[in-house]
Write a structure and sequence with these properties.
Elements (H helix, E strand, L loop, with lengths): L3 E6 L6 H12 L7 E6 L5 H8 L4 E5 L16 H6 L4 E4 L2 H6 L4 H14 L2 E6 L3 H5 L3 H13 L11 E4 L13 H18 L6 E5 L7 H5 L6 E4 L6 H10 L4
Parallel strand pairs: 1-2, 1-8, 2-3, 3-4, 4-5, 5-6, 6-7, 7-8
Helix pairs in contact: 1-2, 5-7, 7-8
Bound molecules: 2-phosphoglycolic acid.
2-phosphoglycolic acid (PGA) binds next to strand 8.
């Protein structure tokens, strides 16, 4: 039976008090059998959320990291700092980082390298824009993002290898990708990473307008190993419904 990852990216939706309150409620929940869950709070709330979740089944990850350990980089938070605050995972190359903040494949690679050196599992986000999809470039874009991230990397034994397929047009739009199409592209991602990392098999999560009503269609798809959710993960009730609808037992 596959492990199902249920990851909640809180983006910039929850302030400090709201994040702590949400973490406190989540800490009391029992996850469905066969699932692994993590939340990705803001840098501001990270330590307080980590403290709330310390004895729970829910792990914590960073939304973004900087690769240099420490120094004069005003406004940045390093992977090392997140490590010291208890991060298990970190998102890398989220579409909002790539498109709103102009992050490149090269920067995503630098973040990946810093994270794996520290033992934090990167969750690489890949996905095509609406225009790239319309122009038939989806496969090409995904392969370029994967090549930039993984070429020449020796994946550390025991580190989870997780990729989130998040079509940019589906993120926050209320227009999810059809599960059959997400499954097809996840299969392609698995194949491409298998070549780049010499036989390794990644867990591919789907992200983009996931809701309680559609989550089962993704987690039951053969090539999809979970979901990365933002909007519907920032309210306790809607997230709880997603958790309940994702049980593999
Ligand atoms: P959404 O965002 O669930 O609000 O569509 C997903 C994401 O950006 O990870």
């Amino acid at each position: 039976m596959k492990t199902v990852y249920l990851f909640a990216n809180w983006k910039m939706y929850l302030d400090y008090d709201e994040s702590v309150a949400m973490a406190r409620r989540l800490a009391g929940e029992t996850l469905p059998a066969g699932t692994v869950s993590a939340v990705f709070p803001s840098a501001l709330s990270f330590s307080a959320v980590a403290e709330e979740l310390r004895k729970s089944q829910v792990a914590i990850g960073a939304q973004n990291v900087y690769w240099v350990e420490r120094g004069g980089y005003t406004g940045e938070v390093s992977a090392q700092m997140y490590k010291s605050a208890g991060a298990t995972y970190a998102l890398v190359g989220h579409s909002e980082r790539r498109h709103l903040f102009h992050e490149t494949n090269r920067e995503a690679r630098q973040k990946m390298e810093a994270l794996i050196a520290l033992g934090i599992a990167p969750v690489l986000c890949v996905g095509e824009t609406a225009t790239e999809k319309k122009d038939g470039q989806t496969e090409e874009v995904l392969e370029a993002q994967l090549r930039a991230a993984y070429t020449g990397i020796v994946w550390p034994a025991g580190m989870p290898l997780i990729i989130a397929y998040e079509p940019v047009w589906a993120v926050g739009s209320g227009e999810p990708c059809r599960p059959e199409e997400a499954d097809r592209l996840s299969g392609l991602i698995i194949k491409a990473v298998g070549v780049l990392l010499k036989g390794a098999t990644p867990a591919v999560l789907y992200g983009g307008s996931v809701r309680a009503e559609n989550v089962a269609g993704y987690v039951s798809s053969p090539a999809i190993s979970g979901v990365l959710v933002a909007g519907a993960a920032t309210k306790f009730d809607t997230w709880k419904k997603i958790l309940a609808a994702s049980g593999v037992s």
